[in-house]
Amino acid sequence: MEKDKLAMEVNKRRTFAIISHPDAGKTTITEQLLLFGGVVRKAGTVKAKKSGNFAKSDWMEIEKKRGISVTSSVMQFDYAGKRINILDTPGHEDFSEDTYRTLMAVDSAVMVIDSAKGIEPQTKKLFQVCRMRGIPIFTFINKLDRDGRPPLDLITELEEVLQIDAYAMNWPIGMGKGLKGIYDLFNQRIELYRREDKNESFLALNEKGELAEDHPLKSESIYRQVLEEVELLQAAGNQLDTAKVAAGKMTPVFFGSALTNFGVKTFLDAYLKFAPAPSTHKTETGQEVKPNDDAFSGFIFKIQANMNPNHRDRIAFVRICSGCFERGMDVTLQRTGKKLRLSNSTQFMADTRETVEEAVAGDIVGLYDTGNFQIGDTIYTGRTAVKFEKLPQFTPELFVKVTAKNVMKQKSFHKGIAQLVQEGAVQLYQSYSTGEYILGAVGQLQFEVFQFRMKNEYHSDVVMESIGHKIARWIDPAQLDEKMSSSRNLLVKDRHGMPLFLFENDFSERWFKDKYPDVKLTAKL
Ligand code: GDP
């Protein structure tokens, strides 16, 4: 691709994720956004329970049964001259690891909050990951059609709990049954909740910030109240500071109701004015890779097997960081130094997969994978080797021993485990003394999904025996003496062969440290 064209294409990209606590309305708002875009392509859908038209991967049965969103998917659409990539994130906290890695692949985030509930635990956790990356965060306070908390309370909570400045782009006029509309400071207009006739959903404001024309709303007390609140905000609240927004230090706040499609388009239009195009990505050695660089580079943030039961395959999701992807191109896989031809690629997967011919920095491509890739891998073209910064890794806290029910079926058992571990679904360890397989996870649900998938995808019934909560601590192999293992800790090796202890509790870790003061233990490899 020519340099100018590449720069123009990259500039059109807006790649973001929606973060929220389950049930705040992420799915509903995503569906609305896709509708505005007329959906170019979509993957996975949004959520099985509502649309019924989702990627019919059999393991998603577990989602249907439990009514939660387990997978992440990628959706792309064109809107207002921009190409938008939405990366969906699993809402359940047991899958936060997956979500966290997905957040490494976006340029901004939209935080959806339930107006009746305010900041919930999962919102807070995900917010902190975005904050750590310093990406811009936009807030949508949802469910205005229901009675929620007073808007001033919500803004105050946002600032206090998340320690971020908030700037209200608009303000609700009433709530629940009394919802009249939103007072839109950014566009200097009032957007009515119920249109009186087809043309009249927006009412202009004059320079004093009051309704320019005569309108029945003017005589309502809620209108007066909102004018006062807005005046208060302007006098005592923050001013919109685009530099702070770009640095993730101020969040523009929008109100609306995703279910009734109120305020969502207003949000999207304003969001696109502020959301950043793809920017630079840091390598492990601190160099910055620019999106407009000629050479292609990207990293794998997610691997998913068997998205379609008719094609037993694995897809590696690549976030393109620089240059242009072309089908059939040769790249170098940094970890092994091997050259690979990327001939089999798909932009997004769903019931209808589309082969992608070309994509640029900011886009996500799915590569069919026959076992070459691992999460965190960098691929690149050109002579200069590139290795992007490590993705965050979670130290598992829950452990089970795992065996195949049928000893005759070891082959499918090993194959299944190897693939699911490579996908990052669970962590695998092996006992030093007995060679037993031990799985580690952040949450119980990960084990359930593992068991379900082993049976459905690899025809392997597994037996899992809980060994409970443990504290995982790595030890330098040079300092290891197998005699250090006792009844209070379990010595295992991880899948790279590195030794670690699984301690029963804080007490047994302290006991170990007292006994071996010179031995260094680390929480993460
Ligand atoms: P997610 O778990 O964050 O993806 O949330 P969903 O989009 O699935 O929404 C959870 C529930 O809230 C569903 O029953 C939605 O219909 C409902 N919901 C979402 N947005 C709104 C809204 O604006 N108003 C009302 N009243 N309900 C909403």
Automatic annotation (TrEMBL):
Superkingdom as given in the UniProt entry: Bacteria
Record bears the keyword Aminoacyl-tRNA synthetase: no
Single GO BP term: regulation of translational termination
Gene: prfC
Keyword GTP-binding: yes
GO molecular function: GTP binding; GTPase activity; translation release factor activity, codon nonspecific; translation release factor activity, codon specific
Matching PROSITE patterns: G_TR_1, G_TR_2
Organism: Liquorilactobacillus ghanensis DSM 18630
Domain Tr-type G: start-end pairs: 11-279
SUPFAM superfamilies in the record: EF-G C-terminal domain-like, P-loop containing nucleoside triphosphate hydrolases, Translation proteins
Cellular component, GO annotation: cytosol
Positions annotated to bind GTP: 20-27, 88-92, 142-145
Stated family: Belongs to the TRAFAC class translation factor GTPase superfamily. Classic translation factor GTPase family. PrfC subfamily.
Keywords linked to the UniProt accession: Cytoplasm, GTP-binding, Nucleotide-binding, Protein biosynthesis
Protein name (database record): Peptide chain release factor 3
Compartments (UniProt record): Cytoplasm
InterPro entries: EF-G-like_DII, EFG_III/V, G_TR_CS, P-loop_NTPase, PrfC, RF3_C, RF3_dom_3_sf, RF3_GTP-bd
